[in-house]
Each structure stands twice: as structure tokens, then as C-alpha cells.
């Protein structure tokens, strides 16, 4: 389910980064390890990526990319007061490919993107484009990006059952595909639902002084279709039914980022702030501070810290209230992304820079960077409803870890230009 | 504070930025040595950006809106 959002946002990023593509390639792998309560272990995600970009003549660039997610670990079968004791193990493989064709003028670029993603229960087909232009003076860059995704999600065939009568999809049920690219229903067992996602972003990047620049980004997205997690169950008044949430969501956000170079120490400070709002009344925001420091001519160290907080979706309830007060006829969800939560992210990145002299690095590259990055993530779940009226509490309704650090993220990468 | 307040705030910030962008030339070409440095380029490492966003959008409801690559010397 996360694939669609990842591809839509990834295509925006891919399109806007093609201006950097100039004959460069990058390979990297990241490892995400999250603690989870219970005896089923944590959650592990291995995320390899590879991209290659090169110029076809003076005005045309082409970029191809591949990424995968190998996911394994514990998951909760039912959102209820005690989700921990019913946890099970699962594994999945997601793969996606992207292709971008860019045209570059003296002061402008236009890029067309296409993407395809596949996993057992989800298919994503995306098309998009990005245009950017430097305004006179070359101190201001304006970019506009748009992506449309035509997606399909596999579900248990619930026919015309009412929400509280619907069964969740289980891993043993087949999700058939036609030619590997389109979903194929298996009447009485599984069926595919359509999801349409429109994503747009406009960005203004401005040089403010010889040592300072800033960026403003306005982002919007509309999702339409079956947006529930087909596997997720919710205990509603003693009945275990498939999650049921609205089939449309519109979201927007505004981000401001500032970089300031410090010539005397050969370093830079970075600030980022974002406000987010959507039609499910999830309101959130984050602030990030970072500092980059060159150590000699070939080492670059960057440290960063980020804090984030969001409110709950208007239909989200702590599990005790779904379980004991019911919500017949209304929406119900066990998605922890729709719960009130705050996170902290802290980490560092070390870059080893190797610039070619008389001979190319490794006989190929004009410049080669080796990146090593490590982050720790702290998740803090907050109550959505009155704690005084909730004798069961919220500590076991999700599979969060109970330690100080909830997750560790490691990334290794090679970035070369030739 | 409701979303209308933030909508107005977003509009005001955008207008202010546009005014700044359309003003006098802020930085001459000969003064862009530091702006061209890789630490001043937004999202200089696309994989790092994509990987970070991938982790966060899987754990937070507020997805998207990170921004775009580029900047630095201000030349496409």
C-alpha cells in the first residue's frame, strides 16, 4: 500500500533531480531495523537502489532507476487493546522501476517520467512531468512537477457486504495478475480495486546572498479509491472486521528550507520546516536542523536532528473505544500513521570525496563519492482519546518497541559522475 | 488555528518570496563560489533523499512536500 505514495513522491524527486543527472550513476542500499513488541521479532527492510543517468547529446538526458524493498518481520493481525499477543510474521518483496527523459535548454529543463511498481498485492503505473526555469539573473529557479498514478490493490472479494461484515485479505489468498502488469479478479476469492493518485508540487529556489539560499515548496495530492489496508482488521464492538476508511483524501503541505555557508570554517548550516494538513484532519509539522563540515579536502561530515508531530485523523480512535463503544456505520482504522504520534530522528553522514586528477577514478569517474549514513528513530505514541476513560491504555494497541530507540537506519552508497 | 489560517499564511509566504525573487539581482555570477558547493545544493544526493522520504512516509501520516533538488549556483 505504501508503494503508490512512494512512487508518486519518488517520481517528483526523480524528475526534479534529473537536472543533476549529467552522466552520473548511483548505487546504494539502506537497512531499516525497527523494534516491535511481542515475541515475533522486529521489522527489517532492506532497500537497494540503482540509478544511471547520461546525456544524449547536448540537450537530452535519460535516467533509469530501480529500487526494491525486501520486508520481513512482525505485524499485528488485529487492531485491538492487545494487538501484541496476536502478532504474526510476514515477508514481502516490492520492486519498482522508473524511466525519465529530460530536455535541457539554456535556462530551463523539461522532464517526462514513467514508473511501474509491483508487489504481491499492489500494482502501480505512474506518468509525470517536471518543468523548471531559471529566472533572469539566475538567482531564482521555479519548478513545477505533476504525477498521475493508476494503481490497483488486491482485496478479499467481499461482494456487496456492509463494512462490519467484510473480511480482510489473508496471505494465502491468490492475487492474480494479467501479464504481470494488471490485476485479474478471482471471483469469490479476491478482486482488484482501482486507486487514482494525482500529485503536484511547485518549488521556488532563491539565492539570497553569496552564502545563503532558500527554497519554498507547495505540495498537493489527491488519492481516490480503495485506501484501506486490505489485510488490517479492527475489533469493533467485539466484531473483527476489515479496516474501513474514506475513499478520498486530499493533502497539502508547505516546506521552507534554508542553507547558509560558513566560509571561515568551511561548513554550512541547514534548516528545514514543514507544515502539513489534509481532509482527514491529520495536521502535522516537522523541523530539521543540520550542520555540514568539511574535514580536509576529501571528507565531509553532516549531522542532523529532526522532530515531527501529527494529530490523529478525525475517525481514528484508541482501540479500547472501537472495541467497547463500537462505531457501527462510521469509519474505523488501526493505521498507526493516522494516530497522534511524534518522532525524533538523529544521525550523521560521512562522505568520502574522490576527485579525478590526471586519470579518472577507477578508470571511469571524474568524481566519486562514498557515503555512509546512520540514523536513529524515536517513536512516541500519543493518546487520541481521553486517557481517564481508557482503563486498557494504549501501550499494546500497536507493535511499537518499548525501548529508548525504536529504529536504526543505515545507508551505504556510491555516487559517481563521469 | 484551523487550516484556513495556514492557507493564508502559505499564500503570504509565497507572495513574499515572489517579491524577493523579482527584486534586484541578489547575487552576481562571480559571487556564486559558495552557492555552487555541494553542501548548498538541495538534495544533492538523490538516493539519500529518496531513502529518507521512503522511511518517513511509511511511519508518518504527513507524506510529501519535502521540496525539490537543485539550487546552489542557480543554473539549470
Describe the structure.
The complex is a heterodimer of chains A (418) and B (76). Chain A is mainly beta and 418 residues long. Chain A has one domain: Porin, CATH 2.40.160. Chain A has two helices and 21 strands. The relative contact order of chain A is 0.14. Chain B is mainly alpha-helical and 76 residues long. Chain B has one domain. In chain B, 41% of the residues lie in helices and 5% in strands. Chain B contains two helices and two strands; from the N terminus they run αβαβ. The longest helix of chain B is centred in the first third of the chain and has 19 residues, at 3-21. The mean pLDDT of chain B is 73. The chains are: A mainly beta (418), B mainly alpha (76). At the A-B interface, helix 1, strand 1, strand 2, strand 7 and strand 8 of A face helix 1, strand 1, helix 2 and strand 2 of B.
Amino acid at each position: 500500500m505504501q508503494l503508490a505514495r512512494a512512487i508518486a513522491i519518488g517520481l517528483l524527486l526523480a524528475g526534479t533531480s534529473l537536472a543533476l543527472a549529467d552522466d552520473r550513476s548511483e548505487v546504494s542500499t539502506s537497512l531499516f531495523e525497527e523494534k516491535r513488541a511481542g515475541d515475533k521479532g522486529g521489522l527489517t527492510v532492506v532497500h537497494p537502489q540503482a540509478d544511471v543517468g547520461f546525456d544524449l547529446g547536448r540537450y537530452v538526458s535519460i535516467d533509469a532507476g530501480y529500487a526494491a524493498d525486501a520486508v520481513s518481520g512482525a505485524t499485528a493481525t488485529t487492531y485491538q487493546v492487545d494487538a501484541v499477543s496476536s502478532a504474526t510474521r510476514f515477508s514481502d518483496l516490492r520492486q519498482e522501476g522508473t524511466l525519465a527523459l529530460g530536455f535541457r535548454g539554456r535556462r530551463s529543463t523539461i522532464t517526462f517520467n514513467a514508473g511501474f511498481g509491483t508487489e504481491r498485492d499492489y500494482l502501480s503505473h505512474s506518468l509525470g512531468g517536471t518543468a523548471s526555469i531559471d529566472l533572469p539573473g539566475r538567482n531564482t529557479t521555479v519548478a513545477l512537477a505533476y504525477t498521475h498514478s493508476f494503481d490497483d490493490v488486491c482485496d478479499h472479494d467481499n461482494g456487496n457486504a456492509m463494512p462490519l461484515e467484510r473480511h480482510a485479505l489473508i496471505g494465502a489468498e491468490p492475487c492474480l495478475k494479467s501479464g504481470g502488469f494488471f490485476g485479474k479478479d478471482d471471483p469469490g476469492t479476491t478482486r482488484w480495486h482501482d486507486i487514482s493518485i494525482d500529485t503536484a508540487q511547485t518549488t521556488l529556489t532563491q539565492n539570497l546572498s553569496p552564502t545563503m539560499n532558500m527554497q519554498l515548496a507547495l505540495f498537493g495530492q489527491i488519492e481516490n479509491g480503495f485506501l484501506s489496508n486490505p489485510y488490517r482488521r479492527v475489533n469493533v464492538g467485539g466484531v473483527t472486521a476489515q479496516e474501513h476508511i474514506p475513499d478520498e483524501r486530499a493533502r497539502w503541505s508547505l516546506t521552507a528550507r534554508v542553507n547558509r555557508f560558513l566560509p571561515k570554517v568551511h561548513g554550512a548550516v541547514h534548516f528545514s520546516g514543514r507544515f502539513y494538513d489534509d481532509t482527514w484532519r491529520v495536521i502535522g509539522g516537522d523541523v530539521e536542523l543540520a550542520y555540514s563540515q568539511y574535514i580536509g579536502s576529501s571528507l565531509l561530515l553532516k549531522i542532523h536532528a529532526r522532530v515531527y508531530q501529527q494529530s490523529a485523523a478525525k475517525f481514528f480512535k484508541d482501540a479500547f473505544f472501537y472495541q467497547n463503544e463500537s462505531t457501527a456505520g462510521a469509519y474505523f482504522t488501526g493505521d498507526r500513521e493516522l494516530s497522534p504520534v511524534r518522532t525524533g530522528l538523529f544521525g550523521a553522514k560521512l562522505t568520502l570525496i574522490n576527485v579525478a586528477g590526471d586519470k579518472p577514478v577507477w578508470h571511469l569517474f571524474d568524481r566519486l563519492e562514498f557515503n555512509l549514513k546512520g540514523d536513529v528513530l524515536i517513536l512516541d505514541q500519543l493518546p487520541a482519546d481521553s486517557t481517564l476513560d481508557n482503563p486498557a491504555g494504549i501501550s499494546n494497541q500497536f507493535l511499537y518497541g518499548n525501548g529508548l530507540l525504536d529504529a536504526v537506519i543505515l545507508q551505504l552508497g556510491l555516487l559517481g559522475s563521469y | 488555528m484551523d487550516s484556513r489560517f495556514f492557507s493564508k499564511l502559505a499564500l503570504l509566504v509565497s507572495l513574499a518570496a515572489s517579491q524577493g525573487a523579482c527584486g534586484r539581482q541578489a547575487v552576481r555570477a562571480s559571487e556564486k563560489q559558495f552557492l555552487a558547493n555541494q553542501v548548498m545544493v538541495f538534495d544533492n544526493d538523490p538516493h539519500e533523499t529518496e531513502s529518507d522520504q521512503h522511511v518517513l512516509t511509511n511511519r508518518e501520516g504527513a507524506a510529501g512536500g519535502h521540496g525539490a533538488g537543485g539550487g546552489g549556483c542557480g543554473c539549470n
